[in-house]
Design a protein that fits this description.
The protein is built from 14 helices and 18 strands. It is an alpha+beta fold and 463 residues long. It has 3 domains: 60 residues; 183 residues, Endonuclease Chain A (Endonuclease, Chain A, 2-Layer Sandwich); 165 residues, Endonuclease Chain A (Endonuclease, Chain A). Strand 14 and strand 15 form a beta hairpin. The longest helix has 30 residues. The chain is globular.
Length: 463
């Protein structure tokens, strides 16, 4: 028998056996990585029933914390307690006193603040963003960064390789020619990052002269900010921080930058303390990072902790609501025990599959007595948590499985009246353009809609 004929005869059978053999190997790896049960089941179903699709997807997107590549990124160093008492460690992050904040409730405020801080920087600018859009806003920001780089200011721009996917455009190359630096966090393609394309840096952080920082949910692009009001702009939240909390934010950036430039043998820089703000409106802030570079899931654990300890009310604002079983059950118990549980989400988000997947959770919460508000005046991209009128939180993380358990994220908890009041006012304004969710878990759904929701919910651990 000729070799060509032999392979034509045997390959259909050999290919099938090889495919299922590879599937067994991948499943064994999957079980060792100890994903959440829902994620494990979802991957098992896709890998076993669709090996040609499931195996490559898992190799590209399936890795989480246990991996050679992520181990190369050292654990985040928590700031040591300061002698003046402005910094102290908590079980979840670093608590600092003596901070000043400026809340940015609109995209115009956020844009002007970012431009002003870039123009005012004297020694250094360090920016991390998930998305840098190739639009007029992105070009303007990079242009301003280029000007500062030409003036001798150290400019470092860290982009997520997936969120800001694509080659460097001419205007970005202009920044490098001016002396600025652009790095990509975590490669995309499987031959560069086998199993790690799933691990994205979703943090949004801009630090100026190592003394002022902007954090929140906004990326850089026209959807998030701009010089004038736009009805099409997404509703989001960010803020400027001055004070000791900036030192911890700088430590987070330096760790991320060191990882992104590891092949260039750049060590992690030391971070200097930041003076305390002495004003009457000084704030207490707890900064925490979450992701593969932290032990456990501190942001998720902190959120769960304050929700379970709530005495009166809980408000959550998020663009995507896909909780795990513990978070969902905690909210249900609070609602059934008479506490006010309010959830504010967009009526329609920019990801239809997550809108389908969330329906089951929303019906359960509504039946338990939770107040679910659907924001109908555009896309709501802001993230916030408000508990008992005493604790508030914002940052980069959504209330979904990816943000809480997979992504590199950043959050800030506030314990002072000023920030709690301002975030409360922002939420109340959004609620004026919202309508109640009224579906119940007891309502019978059309067959096709029910199947679509079930399938969406099944794949959400993979998203």
């Amino acid at each position: 028998m000729e070799i060509g004929t032999f392979f034509e005869t045997i390959w259909p059978y050999l290919g099938t056996y090889l495919g299922f053999g590879l599937a067994f190997i991948v499943i064994a790896r999957l079980m060792r990585e100890k994903h959440r049960p829902s994620a494990t089941v979802a991957w098992l179903l896709v890998i076993w029933f669709l090996p040609p699709v499931g195996v490559p997807l898992y190799l590209v997107f399936g890795g989480r914390k246990i991996s050679r590549l992520t181990r190369q990124k050292s654990r985040l160093n928590m700031a040591p307690p300061s002698q003046d008492g402005t910094l102290s460690s908590s079980p979840f992050g670093v608590v600092s006193t003596g901070n000043r904040t400026e809340m940015q409730q609109t995209g115009v405020q956020a844009y002007r603040s970012l431009i002003n801080e870039i123009q005012a920087a004297k020694t250094s600018i360090a920016i991390t963003t998930f998305i840098l859009s190739h639009d007029a806003i992105g070009r303007r920001i990079v242009k301003e960064l280029s000007r500062k780089a030409k003036a001798g200011v150290e400019v470092r721009l860290l982009l997520d390789a997936v969120g800001s996917f694509g080659k460097k455009t001419l205007y970005m190359l202009e920044l490098e020619k001016a002396g600025g630096r652009i790095e990509r966090f975590m490669p995309v393609f499987p031959f560069l990052s086998l199993g790690k394309a799933n691990l994205r840096n979703h943090r949004k952080l801009a630090i100026f002269d190592a003394t002022r920082a902007i954090i929140g949910g906004r990326n850089i692009g026209k959807e998030y900010m701009g010089p004038t009001h736009s009805r099409k702009r997404w509703k989001d939240l960010s803020l400027l921080i001055e004070g000791p909390a900036v030192a911890q934010l700088s430590a987070i950036f330096e760790a991320d930058w060191s990882f992104a430039t590891r092949k260039k043998s750049e060590g992690e820089r030391d971070v200097a303390p930041v003076p305390e703000y002495k004003g009457a409106d000084a704030s207490t802030i707890e900064i925490m990072a979450s992701g593969p570079d932290t032990r456990n899931d501190p942001l998720y654990e902190k959120v769960l902790s304050v929700i379970q300890e709530a005495d009166k009310e809980i408000t959550i604002v998020t663009p995507y609501f896909i909780p795990d079983e513990v978070l969902q059950r905690s909210l249900i118990v609070k609602a059934r025990s008479g506490k006010r549980v309010r959830l504010l989400i967009p009526k329609r988000s920019n990801h239809p599959v997550t809108d389908l997947a969330r329906k089951h959770f929303l019906r359960e919460l509504h039946e338990a007595g939770a107040d679910i508000q659907l924001y109908y005046d555009g896309m709501l991209h802001g993230k916030a948590l408000l508990v008992d009128g005493e604790i508030a939180m914002t940052g980069s993380a959504n209330m979904d499985l990816r943000s809480l358990f997979v992504n590199y994220e950043l959050g800030a908890f506030f314990y002072s009246d000023k920030e709690v009041r301002e975030i409360t006012e922002w939420i109340d304004a959004l609620c004026l353009r919202s309508e109640p969710f009224t579906e119940s878990a007891r309502d019978e759904q059309p067959l096709l809609k029910s199947v679509a929701e079930d399938m969406s919910r099944l794949i959400t651990p993979l998203l």
